[in-house]
Amino acid sequence: MADGTGETKGGEDKSLGLKKRRSFHIDHEDTKENVLADFSLSSVLNYSVRDKRIFIHGKLDGQEAVVILEKTPIGEDILEEMFRGSKLEAEMSNDIYSTYKLQPPAHLNEIKTTVVCPATEKHVKKYQRQERHLVKETGESYSSITLPYIEQQSFSLQWVYNILEKKAEADRILFEDLDQEVGFVLLPDFKWDQKQLDDLFLLALVRQRKIKSLRDLNADHLPLLRNIYEKGTEVIMRHYGLPASKLRIYFHYQPSYYHLHIHFNALNYEVPGSSVERAHLLLDVIENLVSDPQYYKTRTLYFPISEDDGLLNRFKEARKL
Ligand code: M7G
């Protein structure tokens, strides 16, 4: 489907042309308003020279806030304009080598900005650089330690319900399958600016609301998981021309948000959270449930956890660490 607006079997397909540049959605009438003008900085939570990203804690309108600033990749499509339209200041020259400061036009020099406001203490901890530990969680310690903890302490899922109910990000939905059992919504993760495929990052949110994570999955969920794999990969192929063989499709365990969701990344993109201690490939999960319907109920799972995460203390108190 060239324009991607037609129906696919069992679901509605909504195109988001990759070339269409979209600004970060905010609920303000004037999207040009600088909501960060009065941001007051409390501390830098994390900082990466390699990723050109900084995580900041501060106050916005008297409320706790986390702001993430990130320099975005330079896409091939802007090179011509960048070379023609920039100011160039020479820094040094030596033999065949020279360096410059290039000042591109403002619209080619955007910084991806994510704002969480009001941010909870848990958000601040999530983005703070911390030592981590690997936790060993048996099926039994999931029921006695992890489950009671996540039932009390999890992040709100309001943003997920807003997407499922089309109260937010409706215009960003790429595909949806409305079936209550096997249905899901596929849309860009808010980490992806959609300007280039190299860092493609989509998110599939299941329609069912009672599946918290991988741990809740059993063989009854196989039709749901297969549906997400089949339709998700088909839609990505159609929209972006990326075959399933170029995708990393996986769950996080533990996730940050306890509503079942699946990450779709470009395989070449080495994204934080895709390493062996946290990522579980969707295809492996399907295979595991085929060989043992109760695999994720009984199996010991390992996951990384930050030093001051309350869940780590629960494992320590139970002498499981
Ligand atoms: P996770 O595995 O629960 O946690 O994934 P992580 O953030 O530790 O990876 C949740 C995913 O949802 C992450 O990739 C987030 O970037 C993404 N995400 C979180 N929020 C609050 C939003 C949102 O409001 N919109 C969209 N589109 N993605 C979000």
- Per CATH, the architecture of the largest domain is 2-Layer Sandwich
Global mean pLDDT? 90
Q: What is the C-alpha radius of gyration, as a whole number of Å? A: 22 Å
CATH class of the largest domain: Alpha Beta
Number of helices: 8
- Into how many domains do the coordinates divide? 3
Structural class: alpha+beta
The poorly predicted ranges are 1-26
Proportion of beta-strand residues: 25-35%
Q: Quick one: biggest sheet? A: 8 strands, antiparallel
Can you list the ligands bound to this structure? 7N-methyl-8-hydroguanosine-5'-diphosphate
| N-C termini distance | 53 Å
Order of helices and strands: EEEEEHEEEHEHHEEEHEEEHHEH
Helix content: 10-25%
Q: Write down the overall geometry.
A: globular
Give the CATH topology of the largest domain: HIT family, subunit A
> What is the CATH superfamily label of the largest domain?
HIT-like
The total strand number stands at 16
